């Protein structure tokens, strides 16, 4: 049974060769146009990044190395006693393009558990932060501080060769993924349950099993399973989303994986990106409060219009790329549908009813290119139902997950020797001049 590093060692040379040939033989091939609207429109639709691990089709949603979410659910190993795919099996798939065996997943789980404890100074640092500091800000601080022990940075200082970049990046990336649950759970404990003891990491548990236990929900099998699914499917969403792109950009300066991912976390912390799952719950609870017990489609419709007329977006709806309901939303809905307890929960019923009404309202409103729910429309409400009600914390869980894709990107960028990312910019005047020539 090969380890993750050995598997990568086998795969990397052929990919390096493929890229070298592509550059040499097709470097001048034109693959698209750049329009003024791309430049002034946040580069939407501009295909200008290299990313192998996942592709986001506007209509059918995400595929991880060609596998849809249902394919992954059917083929990626689960934790002992569970059914949902584990975070480490998703990480293996993203990094290698291969479905790991159960034995390989267990070896990786153990490695992550063995590396999961935080250095004492990081514990102290997190404990010193004010409770009122947003949990996402705290997460970024904890992750950035781990670069104290970065193997990549230490090797760079000693003058490592380019061909060695990826192995040191991989060591840091595995260490980072391993330590994220302990940082994230410590923040949760400090901010919301200061009297709770944090349990020791169990070497026989998977990454998310340990995370759930450290959050204080280890006894809740269903929530732990939900977290496994949540963390696996939020892991990667191709290369251009704000968090993945940030990790890639910062990593391209040869910043080590810890500080590259800390930067990505602050992109995730924006309300148009990962913070939306916090916003959805705030919005759905305000809706619940206003509507009261007698929830009807008409009342939900009215509430949506009220939000739109006050100039706000409907959180959990729309997407920069997707043009259909998000399959991640559907996977989480299916998880709810399979459990009568969740199905009868008032907040989950309200989310479902909202998703049946909102697309028509948004179509009539006529602005958003995608009137359908994205994953954030439902993700937080299930946590809320299970008693994890502190919604300012929700994006931290997304932050534990998104590392899977970002570290994959960092390892491969170093393995392929990708250069510093440095696009060229235009001024408005220069664009105007170009447009006049047309
Ligand atoms: N409610 C109301 N208006 C919306 C909307 C929504 N959910 N989604 C888009 N619009 C509006 C935009 O604000 C924009 O209006 P203006 O022309 O006045 O600026 C117009 O529709 C066109 O936007 P778009 O091209 O459809 O969407 P973008 O690619 O610019 O933005 C996104 C995508 C996700 C930021 C946007 O749909 C949004 O704000 N959604 C709500 C927040 C959200 O759910 N974010 C989570 C996304 C998933 C993730 O990254 O985690």
Total domains: 2
- Main sheet: which strands, in order across? 1-2
Secondary-structure content class = mainly alpha
Q: What does the average pLDDT come to?
A: 96
CATH class of the largest domain: Mainly Alpha
Which outline best applies? globular
| Structure annotation, total helices | 21
Report the β-strand fraction as a percent range: under 5%
- How would a crystallographer describe the biggest sheet? 2 strands, antiparallel
- The CATH architecture of the largest domain can be named as Orthogonal Bundle
Ions and ligands = carboxymethyldethia coenzyme *A
pLDDT under 50 segments (min length 5)?
Answer: none
Computed over alpha carbons, the radius of gyration is 22 Å
The CATH topology of the largest domain comes to Citrate Synthase, domain 1
User: What's the order of the H and E elements?
Assistant: HHEEHHHHHHHHHHHHHHHHHHH
Helix residue percentage: 55-70%
How many strands appear in the DSSP assignment?
2
The N- and C-terminal alpha carbons lie at a distance of: 61 Å
CATH superfamily of the largest domain: Citrate Synthase, domain 1
Organism: Piloderma croceum (strain F 1598)
Protein name: Citrate synthase
Subcellular location: Mitochondrion
GO molecular function, one term: acyltransferase activity, acyl groups converted into alkyl on transfer
